[in-house]
Amino acid sequence: MLKYSLFICSIVVFFVSCKPTHSDNVIEFNQAMQTFSNYEKVTCKHLDWKAKINFELKEIKGTATWTFENKSNEKFIHFDTYDMSIIKAKVNGKETQYFVTDFNKEFGSGLSIPISEKDSMVSVEYTTGADATALQWLAPSQTAGGKLPYLFTQCESIHARSLLPCQDVPANRITYNAEIETPRGMMAVMSAKNPTEKNPEGKYTFEMEIPIPTYLIALAVGDIDYKAIDDRSGVYTEPSMLEKSANELSDIPSMMKVAEKLGGPYKWRKYDVLIAPPSFPIGGMENPRLTFATPTIIAGDKSLVSLIAHEMAHSWSGNLVTNATWNDLWLNEGYTTYFERRIMEEIAGKDYNEMMWELGYQDMQSDLNDMGLNGEDTKLKIDLKNRHPEDAFSNIAYEKGAIFLRMLEENMGRKAFDIYLNKYFQTNAFVPMTTEKALTFMRQHLFNGDSSIETKLQLHQWIYEPGLPNNCPKINPIRFIEVDKQRSAFEQSGKVENLKTSNWSTHEWLQFLRKLPHPFAISRMELLDAQFQLTNTSNSEIADEWFKLSISSNYEKAFAKMEQFLSKVGRKKFLQPLYFELMSQEKYKPLAKELFEKYKNNYHPQTAEKIRGIVSPKK
Ligand code: BES
Ligand code: ZN
């Protein structure tokens, strides 16, 4: 952990021809908001971004022109940056000096530019660095088509600062337009109004006229085509993936209907999905107008599309009503997970949906176990002071957050709860939301000022205390009763032919595999594999669970396929447990290290960093 003194940063003067007249300029790192910027006093409003994408150098050369409001006659505007080279800075069109603080690996550097009262526009010319955490550059061989390279960004939580200088906090909103230049034959798409066809010169313009926080800025460049699903929705992906992806996602219009019933009218005009290459580091990212998603959800049977329901739900919880600080992340992810389950209940039915609640509950229990029932990070509202916001993205924010809302729904009744939820989104759209403000709204509009309800429901315990209160709802996954019965019969008899799995969805398989003993007898693993071809499954969720069980059972027949999986898929959620499992057995440690060395270049820099921590733990 870095000491506070590090953040009272010394100032490095880059513009040598001009003496620093502002030696009293101290950028104070705002630990609570993880920003060097002074966004509260000098507030960015609009971004005009010009950028040229250079695949040879793996760099973006850009100019970010910010329109800002200087509310209290400040002498400087401060930005966040991360590993970028600043070429020049201009204020209202005139070149000026600038200051950059020492680099910090987690939070980057502050960039400070002197301004006067009448100024309202600053522009920064820069190139991105090799360690830009928002960017993943793919070689042609890492794409489906194999001919053109690919670039995508992932800015949540605080990576936008490595894409362009910005005030990188979720509490401020900006509009943007962009001019992006790509090599010929490539398409660029953003979290904005998007083209549906390639421009022969590789010149693209974008506009996002609805204000968004910086973590929702997004760009992808590659051999990308578009296929519409209906007037409002469609899929962007590489040509060979287009048909499959559009079929898999054909439920988007009906999901959208359910979502609008819950949250109110969709405010972002279009809802498209970009199916990224397999090295995409997460499952999905709710970039407005254009969700980015991993291709590992294209299972062929729509069994993994709840991820799209989740990202779509963020169009309300997150993108409209946004966590003001990363300490309030549960307002984004917990509300969204609850919202996602409500969409899926309508789409797939209650019994189906209850399985997802149960698997989520198991994930939460496993985090509660790891963090300890008194662990500080098991609180919904957590304290990230001086920590990287990514620490907040545990199953606590997602699943404890979601089941807390389910508890409210069950106690207050669905009708009343839905009215409250709808009002929450409508009233607070485009407003940064803190946990405290959300609770005040809840007291008024859900409890109607009756404070005895709050006490009875243990509101304070749920939000501010660690662990899980005793009024946590009971999940009733009836379809798992049958799975558990069959599993225990199989454990006893070994009669694989008695397993009746033809109507099992992904979720039943996950329950089955998770609950088998770890390790499981190799002879039984062989029986299962022969009967159900689990090693060869094309379902990424089942494959991941099966490989985990295979490692712990020393079932090495699955290892070649597992290696293939580890070579291609970059989704952190899949990779971490497999490397972890390998490292937990002495004899597989060399294999884990070898696989990581072989395939680390296929992983996103942030993911590679995490895996490195697993295979080469600091002593
Ligand atoms: N907002 C998150 C993506 C994210 C996760 C950004 C971690 C930064 C750090 C997104 O909405 C999300 O939650 N994605 C999940 C899928 C979802 C179905 C739980 C994921 O990527 O696994
Ligand atoms: Zn989410």
Structure description:
The structure is a single chain. The protein has 619 residues and is an alpha+beta fold. The chain has a domain at 506-615: Peptidase M1, leukotriene A4 hydrolase/aminopeptidase C-terminal domain (Serine Threonine Protein Phosphatase 5, Tetratricopeptide repeat), CATH 1.25.40.320. 35% of the residues lie in helices and 19% in strands. Helix 5 (350-371) packs across helix 6 (395-412) and helix 14 packs parallel to helix 16 (572-583). The two termini are 16 Å apart. Mean pLDDT is 95; it is low at 1-21. The structure holds ligand BES and zinc ion (ZN). Residues 156-157, 282-286, 307, 310-311, 314, 333, 390, 393, 573 line the site of ligand BES. Ligand BES binds at residues 156-157, 282-286, 307, 310-311, 314, 333, 390, 393, 573.
Given the structure, what is the number of helices? Answer: 18
CATH homologous superfamily of one domain - what is it?
Peptidase M1, leukotriene A4 hydrolase/aminopeptidase C-terminal domain
Q: Order of strands across the biggest sheet? A: 6-5-9-3-2-12-14
Helix content: 25-40%
